[in-house]
Design goal:
With 191 residues, this protein is mostly helical. It is 42% helix and 10% strand. Among the domains are: 35 residues, no CATH class; 39 residues; 49 residues, no CATH class. Helix 1 packs across helix 2.
């Protein structure tokens, strides 16, 4: 893949930067990377303009697009901003941005469902269901066991509270070592 050649005089680059007020927008206009624009601005001695507070500069536009139901990535693309800037401004202005990537739950690598909490973060759904069933918080030594073995079946009647020791005994009785190998291992060592 051949790289696009960038040819712009100091005057052209300065005029574009003063008009667009953003290296990212200048880079988009010339079809090159922001880093290349920065390199040429430094080479030509063009001083970067100190930006205004993003909440002041883009708050109204972000708020308007958010009320139209646009997600953070779409807003960022339309305003030529980074998604992190959009979410930062939204947080500072207490705006709710549609998050089309995280829909309120995550399935972990080992098969448990995490649900989004009202504040920040996620919690294991089966633990929340059990705490609601018991009417109290679980202690650190308590484990929630799925009776039918399905980690996504978090119905209250499929969950049981037990100690860590009992849970280990329940799942590992009769097993020796780490279990059968999925692939055969070579026992020969080369010296």
């Amino acid at each position: 893949m051949a790289s696009k050649k960038f040819i712009a005089s100091r005057e052209e680059l300065l005029a574009a930067y003063l008009e667009l007020k953003s290296m990212l927008r200048v880079a988009d206009r010339f079809g090159v990377s922001k880093k290349l624009i920065l390199t040429y601005m430094n080479r030509y001695g063009i001083e970067r303009v100190q930006r205004a507070d993003p909440a002041e500069a883009y708050g109204k536009d972000i708020s308007h697009l958010a009320t139209m139901g646009r997600n953070g990535t779409e807003i960022a693309r339309e305003l030529s901003l980074s998604p992190s800037t959009v979410y930062l401004v939204a947080k500072r202005l207490n705006l709710r941005i549609v998050d089309s990537f995280h829909k309120g739950e995550i399935i972990t690598h080992n098969g448990y469902r995490l649900v989004k909490l009202d504040g920040n973060g996620y919690a294991r759904e089966h633990r929340l269901v059990m705490e609601q069933k018991l009417g109290r918080l679980l202690t650190p030594g308590e484990v929630v066991h799925h009776i039918n073995g399905d980690k996504l079946d978090n119905r209250p009647d499929n969950l049981e509270v037990m100690s860590k020791g009992k849970h280990v005994t329940l799942h590992h009785t009769g097993k020796q070592g780490r279990g059968p190998d999925k692939k055969s291992r070579s026992k020969s060592l080369k010296i």
